[in-house]
Amino acid sequence: MSSPENQSSSERPATDNSSRRDAPPQASGAVAPPLDGVSLMNYEFTFQQHVDDRVTASFRIEADPNGSRLESPDTHSITSSISKYRVENGRTFHAYKDGSYMYPNDEQELDRQDYQYVVLKHVMGGKLYFAPWSQEKPPRNVLDIGTGTGQWCIEMGDEFPSANISGTDLSPVQPRDVPENVHFYVEDSREDWQWYAQNETFDYIHTRMTVGAWQDLKEDILQKSYDRLAPGGWFEAQEIQCTILCDDDTMPDDFELKVHFDDLEDASAAIGRPLKLAHKFKQVMREVGFVDVEEVTYKIPINGWPRNRQYKQLGKMWEHNLITGIHAVSVGPLHRVRGLNQNQIQMMLVPVRTAISDSRVHAYHKFFIVWGRKPFPNELQTSAQGSGDATMGGAP
Ligand SMILES: C[S@@+](CC[C@H](N)C(=O)[O-])C[C@H]1O[C@@H](n2cnc3c(N)ncnc32)[C@H](O)[C@@H]1O
């Protein structure tokens, strides 16, 4: 098989959709309007368990020899070079474009990402998207950049069976058993997008939790997305701001978790992968030419400190996500940028973990959802006539 860079669309390492991976438990229940100024009173965390009623106590459950993961990533039929992962400090990292992204891709991290996916879906009221799609107006051709475990693509594929859903990532870690309308490709999205036909356009491009992947929002993804969207198509980002925030005086300046995330932000920025990007999407999308750009933000408590039951539940889930993920988000920057070894990193994380669970500090993360539309040519003309800005948007 040829290297991914040289593959034509017919031989690209798309996933074989022959069987189907089960999805993680899905959330139900009406959830939150955005948190800024609005309460989460109706926030319900009701996990539906998909258990077959016919299963009885006499039924014997077969054990998976591969362990607890839904499907082992190394069962993909992909070029061996892109699955020979870098091993560093007890974690594995993507092999394709080795070194360009600092966060692990091992089972432990994929399990955490699946968990985080469910929590964030709760935060967004069970929604997969804020762009104005519906069963009456479904998207036709959808791209998820930095798809990770591919969960978003799989659920979009289920919700919109007539749509063609593509997910791209540096790591071939997506399951094979996905809806027939879902395909995954190995790609570095910072480079020219090679894997799809040159005349192909999308009507919806999505990213989630990709900060740390981009050097320059505009160049790396937003301009390319704009250029590849059909007029009237939508781009949507669902991204967290890593900075630890607090609205009262309970967070001291030396709060270990805040100091740690500030250091990760500095380290990541030092090698050209800034983490403080979520708040920039709206502005840069407008600069690129998107219209009808909207943004909503949610506050996610770092642990169960809130009095409100729903916030408390959300905080406890986020605490679990942080505790299980803090090594993954730290190990790359601390080793590759700060030069620390595994022991030093583990020692450093001890007080950070304690801080994550410190409910005396009313700290939170901010989660941004930003979406905007590529204008139709007649809108561009009108805008140019009105504003004298003929180059707005840089549309093809
Ligand atoms: C934190 S994960 C989020 C995955 C998924 N979007 C989610 O919400 O669960 C970020 C993903 O972006 C991918 N990524 C990083 N840099 C990339 C690049 N240059 N091109 C494509 N994917 C990239 C990583 O491999 C990783 O799977």
From TrEMBL:
GO molecular function: methyltransferase activity
A Pfam short name: Methyltransf_23
PANTHER family associated with the record: METHYLTRANSFERASE (PTHR43591:SF14)
Family: Belongs to the methyltransferase superfamily. LaeA methyltransferase family.
Name the UniProt record assigns to this protein: Secondary metabolism regulator LAE1
Start and end residues of each stretch annotated as Disordered: 1-35
Polar residues biased stretches: 1-17
Superkingdom classification of source: Eukaryota
